[in-house]
Amino acid sequence: VTLSKDKINIHEVILGRNLNQDHQHHFMVEAETWFSMKSKGNYSLIGCTVAPPFDYNDFELAPKEWEPKKS
User: Which of 15, 57, 50 lies closest to 31, judged by CA?
Assistant: First the structure.
């Protein structure tokens, strides 16, 4: 999971089963945070649960191929 609070700097979290390699089974993304996910294998099953309920009026989709730059 790639995360960015300011759309410039990024932080990466690996979701996986190797906890001794700093993988995490799940991760909570804070409000006002851009995030994207990319599979590190042949496939991944990913879910996203939101609370409070999702409101499309608050939704902003990044342009295709956009990503924050590492600084």
Answer: 50
